[in-house]
């Protein structure tokens, strides 16, 4: 379609042989089982953003998937399916396409090694290109695709009904008279259809950002343009940036698209819009995207991103177990994964949810996958939380696999010389694995002649049912025989039963830690928050979901972070607001999976209690002013052609109970393309260091509950002030490239 100036192809890849190869497409074998290997034709579409997949079966529907839905392309037999169902000799012909969503991997075999390399190279180039597109380019690509879909008869022209179809595709339901008026305005040739420059004009009219024009006009005081001095005034007054005139000049040099305007050191309206839409000016403080916190403190001084029953892809009763679930969690920055270990056949331990119909995976395969992906997102330590139900013989096999596969990365002795008195820091443990599990004796014993001897019995700890003290007494009689080889690998995370804060203070060493079911932990966090905080200064606490959550739902992690609990384990496979909050908590500090607790939660004498909100240095009262201005290119909730969203925005504050709040805008009827609200809210925040801000967009429904459209959560202390675009994530936590929310933020000290 000729749209004179709307960019269609990925920049920098024109004429690339790998791109040409993908555009031509080819046959691949799709692998589902040893006997199920079917030919599939795969081809890149003309938009260079969509892959087309065709079955050889007659009447079988063809499928497409967007390039930006691909998480990674893995060369060789790396996936569970390819390892299990293909022979080693075809390693070089195999590759897997892994998706960000819950879509299953595509395990594929090419006809030759060279062809496999070309598929992988081409797809990786495309992914890199899509990821590097500016928000402006991404939106242009999206609009171009919608224009192509609207042009039903493929004649590169749009008649009035095709224009209305296009408007619905971009999520606008427009009154007929307004659509007619828009059409007539663009149909300069009075031909009854739009083509070429006229389509470009329609696009420009829709792309117009009136709210940004208003801001621009206020500061464009130099012959209708912004000078560097005007821009500096905007940056200092509106954005609260402490910058110089040199910085303003650099912005003009980087973002002004019109060369003659740039030569005069001026910024046009288009340049100003491009600057406001770039990631560096988003609502998230860019300095917090890197590791910016002190990583030299003891491990117990950090919140640690943690997963429960990590091996599960779905529910807790009959869903599949998979090494892929470990890979997904680790790539999301998770630093504590759980392994439920049981005796398997052929002397090989397996992982699954015991006494259920969930499928099984080999322990050694899970450890290999963890080793391969542990440090791709974060280089900081990974804790392997073992729930051990194996016989002594298979525990010895587990120990052997841990030692052989993880090698020197596995911590098998305390760091430094002599018996430690505190945890090492995440910095000291970079690239290392820690085992959390039962131990036959105290760690101190390994520094004396008092070894474990022949003792092999420890009390079995299980994560099942809502355990009472009586249940624990019964269970105390149930003994687990423990292999010395596995016991000796437990150094800094020895699992013990919790008998109260006083007992822990008196009798437990720093490395002895307890696991709490959510109900017990929530009760302690509510009734004994200050004691819990003191306990968590020098000891680790792990919290996990109740056994009744068979659907893999999650609990709210915030009250437990408020009580200083470090390892608050959630079901990572479940899309929900609790996981959004978890992702928001660990969004910063380089997505390292470690967030330094505030100073008042690391002090053993702290009087802080989140429930009572008593005065202290943690109380730094702020007033947050949020103006929700507009949104751009919201995704459709329902893919039916006639379905258009009626968006509203909720602004939610999470933190100490006093700070919890939700406020929402009115709904905008039938406009997901460029809805506008201009509504202002005010929030009081008493403990900003524990607060999170969540922006949620929902599709309003008067007859039932609203449907989720998109969200973004970030720490209160990472907010940038002024006019900011908020990136938007889908329900799986992945970025929606073309969508955004535009807000104005102001944080003031409360009087």
Automatic annotation (TrEMBL):
Which SMART domains does the entry mention?
A: C2, EFh, PH, PLCXc, PLCYc
Q: Where is this region: Disordered?
A: 449-478
Q: What's the record's note on cofactor binding? A: Binds 3 Ca(2+) ions per subunit. Two of the Ca(2+) ions are bound to the C2 domain.
Record has RNA-binding as a keyword = no
Where do the PH domain residues begin and end?
A: 21-128
Please tell me which top-level EC class this enzyme sits in: hydrolase
Mind telling me which GO cellular component terms the entry cites? Answer: cytoplasm; plasma membrane
Residues bound to Ca(2+) 5 are 699-701
Q: What is this protein called?
A: Phosphoinositide phospholipase C
Q: Which organism is it from?
A: Oryzias melastigma (Marine medaka)
């Amino acid at each position: 379609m000729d749209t004179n100036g709307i960019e269609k192809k990925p920049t920098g890849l024109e004429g690339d042989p790998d791109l040409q190869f993908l555009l031509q497409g080819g046959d691949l074998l799709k692998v589902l089982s040893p006997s199920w290997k079917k030919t599939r034709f795969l081809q890149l579409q003309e938009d260079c953003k969509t892959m087309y997949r065709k079955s050889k079966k007659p009447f079988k529907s063809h499928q497409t998937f967007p390039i930006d839905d691909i998480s990674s392309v893995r060369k060789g037999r790396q996936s569970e399916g390819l390892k299990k169902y293909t022979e080693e000799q075809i390693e070089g012909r195999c590759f897997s396409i892994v998706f960000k969503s819950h879509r299953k991997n595509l395990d594929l075999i090419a006809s030759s090694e060279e062809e496999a390399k070309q598929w992988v190279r081409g797809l990786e180039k495309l992914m890199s290109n899509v990821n590097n597109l500016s928000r402006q380019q991404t939106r242009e690509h999206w609009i171009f695709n919608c224009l192509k879909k609207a042009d039903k008869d493929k004649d590169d022209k749009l008649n009035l009904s095709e224009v209305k179809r296009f408007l619905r595709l971009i999520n606008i339901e427009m009154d007929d008279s307004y659509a007619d008026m828009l059409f007539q305005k663009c149909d300069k040739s009075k031909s009854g259809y739009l083509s070429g420059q006229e389509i470009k004009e329609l696009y420009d009219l829709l792309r117009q950002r009136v709210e940004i024009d208003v801001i621009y006009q206020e500061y464009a005081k130099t012959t209708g343009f912004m000078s560097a001095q005007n821009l500096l005034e905007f940056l200092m007054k509106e954005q609260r940036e402490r910058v110089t005139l040199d910085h303003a000049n650099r912005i003009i040099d980087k973002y002004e698209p019109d060369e003659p305007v740039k030569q005069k050191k001026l910024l046009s309206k288009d340049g100003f819009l491009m600057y406001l839409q770039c990631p560096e000016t988003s609502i998230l403080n860019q300095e917090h995207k890197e590791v910016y916190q002190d990583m030299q403190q003891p491990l117990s001084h950090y919140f640690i991103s943690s997963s429960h029953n990590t091996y599960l892809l779905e529910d807790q009763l009959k869903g599949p177990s998979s090494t892929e679930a470990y890979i997904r969690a680790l790539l999301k920055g998770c630093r504590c994964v759980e392994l439920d270990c049981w005796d398997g056949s052929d002397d090989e331990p397996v992982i699954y949810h015991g006494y259920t119909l969930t499928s099984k995976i080999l322990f050694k395969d899970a450890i290999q996958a963890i080793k391969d992906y542990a440090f791709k997102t974060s280089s900081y330590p990974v804790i392997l939380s073992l729930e051990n139900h194996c016989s002594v013989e298979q525990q010895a096999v587990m120990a052997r696999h841990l030692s052989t596969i993880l090698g020197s990365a596995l911590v098998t002795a305390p760091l430094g010389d002599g018996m430690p008195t505190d945890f090492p820091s995440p910095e000291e443990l970079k690239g290392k694995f820690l085992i959390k599990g039962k131990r036959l004796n105290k760690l101190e014993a390994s520094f004396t002649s008092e070894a474990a001897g022949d003792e092999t019995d420890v009390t079995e700890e299980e994560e099942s049912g809502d355990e009472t003290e009586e249940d624990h007494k019964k269970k105390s009689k149930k003994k687990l025989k423990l292999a010395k080889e596995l016991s000796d690998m437990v150094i800094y995370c020895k699992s013990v039963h919790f008998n109260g804060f006083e007992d822990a203070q008196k009798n437990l060493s720093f490395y002895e830690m307890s696991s709490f079911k959510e109900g017990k932990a929530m009760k302690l966090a509510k009734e004994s928050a200050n004691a819990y905080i003191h306990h968590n200064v020098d000891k680790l606490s792990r919290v996990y979901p109740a056994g009744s959550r068979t659907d893999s739902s999650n609990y709210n992690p915030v009250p437990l972070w408020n009580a200083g609990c470090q390892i608050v384990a959630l079901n990572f496979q479940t899309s929900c607001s609790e996981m959004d909050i978890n992702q928001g908590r660990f969004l910063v500090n380089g997505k390292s999976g470690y967030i330094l607790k505030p100073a008042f939660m690391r002090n053993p004498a702290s009087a802080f209690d989140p429930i009572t909100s008593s005065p202290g240095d943690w109380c730094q009262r702020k007033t947050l002013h949020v103006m929700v201005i507009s949104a751009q290119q919201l995704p459709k909730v329902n893919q039916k052609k006639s379905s258009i969203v009626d968006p509203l925005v909720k602004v939610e504050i999470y933190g100490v109970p006093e700070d919890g709040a939700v406020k929402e805008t009115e709904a905008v009827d039938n406009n997901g393309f460029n809805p506008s609200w201009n509504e202002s809210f005010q929030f009081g925040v008493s403990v900003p260091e524990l607060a999170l801000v969540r922006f949620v967009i929902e599709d309003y429904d008067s007859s039932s509950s609203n449907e989720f459209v998109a969200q973004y959560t970030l720490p209160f202390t990472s907010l940038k002030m002024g006019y900011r675009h908020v990136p938007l994530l889908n329900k799986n936590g992945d970025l929606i490239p073309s969508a955004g929310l535009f807000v104005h933020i102001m944080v003031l000290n409360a009087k």
